Amino acid sequence: MNARHDAAIFIDKDGTLMDAVPHNADPARIHVAARVREGLRRLHNRGFRLIVVSNQPGLARGYYSELDVLVLERRLRDFLHMHGVPLTGFYYCPHDPQGRVGQRGLSCTCHKPRPGLFQRAARDHAINLSWSWCIGDTLDHVEAGHGAGARSILVDNGNETEWVLSSHRIPDYLAHDFRDATRHIIDTSDPGRPIRPPRMVRP
Q: Of 29, 38, 50, 152, which is most buried by a Cβ count within 10 Å?
C-alpha cells in the first residue's frame, strides 16, 4: 500500500541524511551512505515526498554564505537524483542566537526545535503534516516534528547526548539506524504488516 500523496518524510541533513560534520557547506563532501539511499528510495517508491530540513547556524556566524548553501543543495539533489531519489524540498534555517551576520542573529520560528521549517514546507507543497514523519538524530528534531503535528523518529546513532525529555521530545519510535526507521514507517503505513510497538527511549 502506498502512502497518501500528501504525506512527507522530513529528514535532518547533518547526522541523519549524511555524517555529522560541523558547519559543513562543502559540496565536495556530500555523501549519503548506500543504506540511507536505499531507505530513501523505498520511501519514495511508497509515495512519500522527501524534504530535507536543516539548521544552518554557520550562516549567522559567518562561516559560509547563502550561495554556498545553495550550491550544496544543488549537489545533494544531483547526488540523490543519480541514485533514483528525488527531493521535493530543501529547507534550512539561517539563524542563530549567537550569530553576528545581519539580522540572522535574531531569534526565529524556524530553528529546530521550533517547527517553522516544517510548516513552511507544508504550505509550499500542500503536505498533510498529520500523515507525515520526521527522522532526526537528536531530540530537537523530534520536538520540531511533533510541534508541526508530524510523527517523529529518533535515529539513536550517538549524536543525542543530553536526553532532556519532555512530552514533545519523546519519539514515536527509537530506531537503531536509518534502515530501521524506514522499515518502521513502511510497516505502520501498510495494514498488511504488523505494527511494532514503540521502543522505549533510553535515559
A: 152
- Architecture of 8-189 per CATH? 3-Layer(aba) Sandwich (3.40)
Q: CA 38, CA 203: separation in Å to the nearest integer?
A: 30
- In the set 6, 14, 78, 124, the catalytic residue is 14
Q: Is 14 a catalytic residue?
A: yes
3 state DSSP class of 10: strand
Sequence ranges of the domains in the chain: 8-189
pLDDT in tens, 84-136: 999 999 999 988 877 566 666 577 999 999 999 999 999 999 999 999 999 99
Portion of the chain with pLDDT greater than 90, in percent: 67
Residue pair 163/139 in contact by the 8 Å Cβ criterion? yes
Query: Partners of 152 in the beta sheet?
Result: 134
Q: Is position 156 annotated as part of the catalytic site?
A: no
Q: Which three cell numbers stand for residue 92?
A: 534550512
pTM of the model: 0.89
> Distance (Å, rounded) from C-alpha 86 to C-alpha 76?
10
Residue found by looking up cell 553576528 in the block: 100
Res. 195 pLDDT band, cuts 50 70 90? very low
Residue found by looking up cell 545553495 in the block = 70
